[in-house]
Amino acid sequence: MCSSLLKSLSPQLPDPILLHPVTLCLPPLQLKVGVKRAVELKAMDSGGTSDPYVIVYLTSDRRKRYETKVYRKTLNPIFNESFTFQIPQAEVSESTLVMQIYDFNRFSKHDIIGEVRLPLASVDLQHVIEQWTLREHLGEICFSLRYVPSTGKLTVLILEARQLKRMDSNGLSDPFVKVHLILNRRKWKKKRTSVKKNTLSPYFNEVFVFEVPFSQIQNVDVVISVWDHDKVTKNEPIGKLFLGCRATGNQLRHWSDMLSNPRRPLAQWHILQPPEVVDKALGLKSHLKLPLPRY
């Protein structure tokens, strides 16, 4: 049957015809990343300095990570270290280069100072790129998480924020917080706090309880976003972050600590990130209203 079909489709070709499947195998690309230096880092230690080091990885393979050396008691470290990644060409357009600066602590968890994400699709990889990446300070937010597996109750307590970005002409903002739950990369549930007028350091102390069955907790992301309220025009986002098994840095650590300590509320400060960076990392699908999973 196959032979007769080929003849009818291609009568001009001689008989017999032997067809071989062709698989195009492109060699992996070699991506060389150089970490040069940082300036005016945030002081994380009581002495007014930090002990910074950098972690570098690609989102296409999070297991392959490089670390620079730790530089003691400085806010202006000079690293001058380079790392080489092998990345399949088919994964380049979907991969993002992540560089995270941490403050080393000998007896406690290392604190993240900042993070830079560079989508590889946005740069010309045929040429050497050398640039400073300036991170705008958007503010910080403190909240606690608590999860009870037996009841499927996820509690998010929004406590306060500080050093928020000025959004209004008077040098202040009218902030409020949205809490979104994402299930399997689709928007699922949402809550929001009240608006706090004319402040860059709002105190909320508002609690939200979500029903998340234990069978779904590994598939859930919690998105925390701070907004500036405006009566006349649209509300503007100030900054975002998300927690879940797909998160990185302090966000992943906070989420993991919550799962490891059921029924115990755990509070932590987090640095807000640019909304577009968080949205890209989440890779949300189109909105779909989902029923509460049964268990």
Automatic annotation (TrEMBL):
Subcellular location: Cytoplasmic vesicle, Secretory vesicle, Synaptic vesicle membrane
Domain C2: start-end pairs: 11-133, 137-270
Membrane-related topology note: Single-pass membrane protein
Cofactor(s) essential for the protein: Ca(2+)
One Gene Ontology MF term: clathrin binding
Protein name: Synaptotagmin 8
Gene Ontology cellular-component annotations: axon; dense core granule; plasma membrane; synaptic vesicle membrane
Keyword entries, A-Z: Calcium, Cytoplasmic vesicle, Membrane, Metal-binding, Repeat, Synapse, Transmembrane, Transmembrane helix
Pfam family for this entry, one: C2
SMART domains recorded: C2
One biological process term in Gene Ontology: synaptic vesicle endocytosis
PANTHER family, alphabetized: SYNAPTOTAGMIN, SYNAPTOTAGMIN-8
Top-level taxon: Eukaryota
Keyword flag Transmembrane helix: yes
InterPro entries: C2_dom, C2_domain_sf, Synaptotagmin
Family: Belongs to the synaptotagmin family.
UniProt-listed CDD domains: C2B_Synaptotagmin-1
SUPFAM superfamilies attached to this UniProt entry: C2 domain (Calcium/lipid-binding domain, CaLB)
